[in-house]
Design brief:
The chain is 47% helix and 17% strand. It is an alpha/beta fold and 375 residues long.
Length: 375
């Protein structure tokens, strides 16, 4: 019998998102002499399927589109056809739809990754109750932040013995502060003059990320600092609405939508600061990547963000949805180059010391070992 254990990672989709970015880093850093990872996307190949396949990861697409009967049936059949030692679920949709099927088939080594205190559970008590019920049949739940850990304890009554707190991490070696040449090249690629002060907003264009507020901050900031350029990197259902808001404003020349940016390293080399206005987060990947790149960050003081960022030490924190607070914090960043340098240096140190993917993957492998020992 082989000592290599097969691990199937099940996720809602392989569209653009922090959970997908983390999953790619996770499976490529697992000890392949001990674990053989595969990935199952419930619906669609998205932008990440090719990346998983290029990394040599077998990738199953259970449905070409978001059609629950189709991907539920195909997942059921996949579990009956293949023998997996561990099932690892990511994101709420996979947890809610696919996890009960695995439990029904008698799988006993089930790990759940809970990425954030998502609003869908809070708005719908039925979903909250269903998720809490399904969690009774899993082996371990990995919370990516202390706030997620406490949420699972308090709101879903998950016993402390079933929880592990392991934050998301990144390959910090892939991100670093830009050299002068790298900065010139990044600006040349994007067509941005070196003299321009560039502020980035990065992520899925969804309600949670509050990009509408980023635009309001941009309008006020550009009014005072016409030399500033805001770049929005990401796609999502709110993209057209956000673009139209900019087009109706008098600041369209100073706000640029980049769409999906595959070369995030190059993007960070072009930035002077990053703005994150999310209403809730687990451990956001864009935040970790920006900090590893030495970029000063202004962010909402919520959930996992506030566990990574310490105000005035490695970033600036603002109460959520506080327009004046975000504008004031950005003003400090723009006017004070010494503050930018200090925050950026401390931010990178934080990532190297606490959020390097290789050490965090060892923690996940320990969870796997424990789960397998209990079967």
């Amino acid at each position: 019998m082989s000592d290599v254990r097969r691990v199937l990672h099940v996720i809602d989709s392989l569209d653009l998102g922090g959970a997908q970015t983390f999953l790619l880093d996770l499976v490529t850093h697992l000890d392949r002499s001990r674990y053989e990872p595969e990935v199952a996307s419930m619906h669609g190949r998205g932008v990440y399927a090719a990346a998983f396949e290029s990394a040599g990861i077998t990738t199953h697409v259970l449905s070409p589109k978001k059609w629950p009967p189709y991907y539920v049936l195909n997942f059921w059949n996949l579990l009956r056809r293949e023998r997996y030692d561990i099932l690892h679920f990511h994101l709420f949709g996979a947890n809610l739809c696919a996890k009960p099927l695995a439990i029904a088939q008698g799988h006993r080594a089930i790990v759940v990754h809970d990425q954030c205190n998502d609003a869908s559970r809070e708005r719908n008590p039925v979903l909250l109750a269903a998720d809490a019920l399904a969690n009774r049949g899993v082996s371990r739940i990995i919370a990516v932040s202390g706030s997620v850990y406490r949420y699972l304890l308090d709101r879903e009554d998950v016993p402390d013995s079933k929880l592990a707190m392991i934050p998301n991490g990144i390959d910090a070696g892939a991100f670093s502060p830009a050299t002068d040449d790298q900065r010139k090249e990044a600006r040349r690629t994007l067509g941005i003059p070196l003299s321009t002060f560039v502020i980035g907003g990065i992520g899925r264009l969804v309600e949670q990320k509050n990009f509408d507020l980023i635009l309001e901050v941009a309008f006020r900031t550009i009014r005072v600092h016409p030399e500033v350029l805001f770049v929005i990197a990401g796609t999502g259902p709110l993209e057209q609405q956000l673009r139209e808001k900019v087009e109706r404003s008098e600041y369209a020349a100073s706000i640029r939508f980049l769409g999906h940016v595959g070369d995030r390293t190059g993007l960070f080399h072009a930035l002077d600061a990053m703005l994150m206005t999310s209403d809730f987060e687990g451990t956001p990947m864009a935040l970790l990547e920006a900090m590893a790149s030495g970029i000063p960050v202004v962010a909402s003081a919520v959930d996992g963000i506030a566990e990574v960022c310490i105000d005035n030490r490695n970033g600036l924190l603002v109460p959520p949805r506080n327009l004046k607070g975000f504008c004031s914090a950005l003003e400090k960043i723009i006017r004070d180059p010494e503050m930018r340098d200090s925050l950026g240096m401390n931010a990178r140190r934080t990532i190297l010391e606490r959020y390097e993917i290789s050490s965090l993957v060892k923690g996940i492998e320990s969870v796997y070992d424990e789960v397998l020992a209990r079967r």
